[in-house]
Design the sequence.
């Protein structure tokens, strides 16, 4: 069935360093890939997304890259700050079904 | 424009009771999705609804769980005869057709 694998499960970086989270999806028909940030006890909030007709998208300190051939996509956060500390989830979706298949999450800790 | 609303935010039930979780989508959104999040885990798709229609319920347990999105009023996720394993955070999301999903604050269900 559909599956999204996410690595690493935990990630600690020093403030100012970069963080990279990677996801691999199984359904080759997937065409939309959002990333959500979830703080403790809060709702998941969209931080960036990418569609399958684009290889890379950037928004200030956050960027996402997509490799359709390899079926993986990555989140890059540069110049990390303590407020970036949260759990990050990747997801994959397919036109027509629309449900999100989520990865298992990455707990990012930015050390001041 | 108010975001996705869910109520109650916290719900305590004893084993065997019924739980009713409500979700009001963002204005202009006609698609509603329900996800379940167990402690320290990712979000699992349960059901996708449009007004008066269940589009995809492939993630919902066959017994005790039901969902509806009536012509008027909020979407409701109903869990009958709750068991301890139903304790989780239940998130609702809404979107216009085929677009990004925005999440509500969640209902945290605790079954005693």
Sequence:
């Amino acid at each position: 069935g559909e599956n999204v694998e996410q690595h690493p499960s935990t990630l600690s970086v020093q403030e100012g360093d970069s963080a990279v989270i990677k996801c691999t999806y199984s359904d080759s028909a997937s065409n939309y890939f959002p990333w959500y940030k979830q703080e403790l006890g809060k709702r998941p909030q969209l931080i960036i997304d990418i569609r399958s007709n684009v290889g890379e998208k950037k928004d200030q300190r956050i960027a996402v890259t997509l490799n359709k051939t390899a079926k993986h996509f990555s989140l890059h956060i540069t110049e990390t700050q303590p407020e970036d500390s949260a759990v990050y989830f990747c997801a994959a979706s397919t036109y027509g079904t629309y449900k999100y298949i989520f990865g298992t999450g990455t707990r990012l800790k930015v050390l001041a | 424009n108010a975001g996705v609303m869910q109520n109650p935010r916290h719900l305590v039930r004893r084993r065997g009771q019924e739980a009713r979780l409500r979700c009001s989508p963002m204005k202009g959104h006609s698609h509603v999705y329900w996800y379940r999040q167990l402690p320290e885990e990712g979000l699992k798709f349960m059901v996708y609804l449009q007004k008066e229609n269940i589009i995809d319920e492939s993630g919902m347990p066959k017994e005790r769980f039901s969902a509806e999105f009536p012509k008027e009023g909020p979407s409701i996720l109903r869990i009958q005869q709750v068991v301890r394993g139903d304790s989780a955070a239940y998130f609702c999301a809404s979107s216009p057709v085929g677009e990004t999903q925005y999440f509500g604050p969640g209902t945290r269900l605790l079954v005693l």
